[in-house]
Amino acid sequence: MKKPIGIFDSGIGGLTVLKEILNAMPGEDTIYLGDTARVPYGAKSAETVTRYSLENARFLLKFDIKLLVVACNTASAYCLPRLKQELPIPVIGVIEPGARKAVEVTKTKRVGVIGTEGTIRSGAYFDAIKAINPAIAVFIKPCPLFVPLAEEGWTNNQIARLTAQTYLHYIKKQWIDTLILGCTHYPLFKGVISDIMGEDVMLIDSGHETAAEVFKCLMDKNLLETVSSGQNTHRFFVTDSPERFKQVGSKFMTANLDAVELVNVGS
Amino acid sequence: MKKPIGIFDSGIGGLTVLKEILNAMPGEDTIYLGDTARVPYGAKSAETVTRYSLENARFLLKFDIKLLVVACNTASAYCLPRLKQELPIPVIGVIEPGARKAVEVTKTKRVGVIGTEGTIRSGAYFDAIKAINPAIAVFIKPCPLFVPLAEEGWTNNQIARLTAQTYLHYIKKQWIDTLILGCTHYPLFKGVISDIMGEDVMLIDSGHETAAEVFKCLMDKNLLETVSSGQNTHRFFVTDSPERFKQVGSKFMTANLDAVELVNVGS
Asked: What is the ipTM of this complex?
């Protein structure tokens, strides 16, 4: 019996990670949980985000998943060690893969990180980069408005551009050559961010790097589905408003979001 | 023994209502609950918002409050009748007072309403206005970005102005003479909205009208504290991140937010 990959996010943003996973591993079954009743996690405390994340993970475990992807930067930042400790399966977050890639590609040894308030405040990217190479200078900036802008579908208009300019003003002055998009919503702003930062700055999409890490982990453990039958199952669960998830989710990935099921994962 | 007024909101926005209550009734004690662990309510379903609201109300009831103010438009829109039915004390929401005032002041009989997705989708303002005078034409527009903009403190910059222009474009063409600010965060954008709509359009601040309704209700029931001792107690509870509540809350009201206590109201 084929076991699925489990993925959770605070809401819709994790679909950008799921999209990368499906691109890299088209033979896999997946189960996605969006905690839309309690979204967003970005401005909430470590304790609250940890509690919610454990509930999400326990829900997904019921489906006999072979690996858990924490497709939310805030949750990865606050509680990945705790999830790894509590769960009997491999757990992969979105911070480490992005940090590792940034360290690999930076030539100037100056890296920028943008994310939610929680992700930035946690220092998780800063710590992950410094753990690999303490000589790299890291410049951080929270960009809380990007998430609501993405959900409104305003990712390439003048408001998105002005917002990005305001947020990136400080980062742009730091002579970085690598910028980590440390929130699953941010790849939708790649065009605008790239215009502002210039072509000499490489943008790191954490979701893309995470998919590569999932691939490697499954291959190492001999759990990879190497043959795509074209008959894969992709289930979607949300804790609130399936209709809104389908509607807004279509801005994030083109997959079929027809069957979104409502569940209660809270204690 | 003096009984306090209880007030809850999904988060910080209700502080604009509390401010109006303190202005109108300086002799009252108050207890405020911001459900910051589950904020925002604006894009969540009626069922979820009702569940959260009942939990908030039950928490405040423990303090022997004499009246409950539902200082959240989304919660008022979705579950005011249910709260009135379940609670043994008077319950006042923010929809009815705003709607009544708009009906009272409109001369052209054309009224606009802006609010969160939930408030607008519920049709609560539309229904409340039509119930008083079915001849009034009502024009609605959800403005989801105003809440995160207010919390970022961007209420009067070019981004706020462009966002308001985009959202109000449709409403402005309807020849309204009255616009209800149907979200507790929106009074912070009065300057920008007023500039765009022009001086012939009257802005209705639901929080201000709600405070008048609370005053009237307490007076009618002989529950009003007419003498201010200058020694009133104002307690603040949040379900997450007291520090963030203090910091962002200071943009909403100048009262002393030093003592913000963390509680868990969830089931």
From this structure: 0.88
